[in-house]
Design goal:
The chain has 148 residues and is α+β, with helices and mostly antiparallel strands. It has one domain. Helix 1 packs antiparallel against helix 3. The longest helix is centred in the last third of the chain and has 36 residues. The chain is elongated.
Length: 148
């Protein structure tokens, strides 16, 4: 991987973790949504990550090969945001506007503790990737200073 490959790799991870945090925030915001445009309660969303080949420049690939490294580096991509297939929670609330004939209302199966743990994981991953970018920027600056 060339000098800027680490920044590109961390950049793909930053984008993926930002999307993960946004999805978790949407889950938490819709924890009590009993009616959506599609009908029924809101469904918890999950983010699916996958490795993707990074588009390195021809110069970057050549440099990596000359230095004995691999040119086919991979980054992180969000391939899908999928809805949870689990059954909604049913609560007896006969006065609720979305109650069925028996007085039960379907609520999203969203656990605030699970969502907070997911958000903490996304936040920490984001911070670690940002730290990796800062460390590489410092190394590049030191290299430039040595060449002066």
């Amino acid at each position: 991987m060339n000098l800027f490959g680490v920044m590109e790799l961390s950049g793909t991870a930053l984008r993926a973790e930002r999307i993960r945090a946004e999805v978790v925030a949407a889950n938490m915001a819709n924890a009590d949504t009993t009616r959506t445009e599609a009908g029924g309660p809101y469904r918890r969303q999950h983010v699916v990550f996958a490795a993707m080949p990074m588009n390195q420049s021809a110069f970057g690939n050549t440099l990596a090969q000359k230095m004995g490294g691999e040119s086919g580096a991979e980054g992180v991509a969000v391939t899908a945001v999928v809805a949870d297939s689990g059954a909604p929670l049913r609560r007896y609330e006969p006065g609720h506007p979305d109650a069925d004939a028996n007085g039960y209302v379907s609520f999203p199966d969203i656990n605030p503790m699970t969502e907070m743990v997911d958000l903490m994981g996304a936040t920490r991953s984001y911070g670690l990737n940002a730290s990796a970018i800062q460390a590489e920027k410092g190394m590049l600056q030191n290299s430039i200073d040595l060449l002066k």
